[in-house]
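Project standup — Tuesday

K.O.: blocked on the structure for the chain from last sprint. Re-posting the sequence here as requested.
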Amino acid sequence: LAALGTLANIDADERIAALDIFYNRYKDNPLVIDKWFSTQAFSMREDTIDAVRELQQHPDFTLNNPNRVRALAGAFSANQQQFHLGDGSGYRFLADILLALDPINPQTAAKLIPPLGRWRRFDNGRQALMKAELERILAQPGLSKDMFEQASKSLG
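H.V.: unblocked you, prediction finished:
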């Protein structure tokens, strides 16, 4: 797993081969596949946001599995370099997942909001982008009580 994590950060054919080999070897072990998702979400590569969006479409990714959501969205939101891209795409990705997850599992969705609530720690541009995503979450019709409370608290 450590070697896979190293390879996940480089631009080389070996990276793709290693990820495929690892997946095929452990595809029947859900906890290990969670690590496979997390490893890619933690990548420092410039295309990490694109990779996590693609991983959302992977047959083994489902919003119905809280561990899998945490493995992808939770890990990505802890990726300080790629989550905080200046264009706000990382914030939008997280908010999109949370809004999709809320009707299925509002408790898990609410627990994943805090990275957006740390907006005070960042420059004005990132603050505005993070707050905009929190406001977008709050504007969602039918938002759960859990999400409403956490998003409101994060903006306050």
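K.O.: great, moving the ticket to review. The CA atoms of residues 14 and 20 lie 10 Å apart. The two ends are 39 Å apart (CA to CA).
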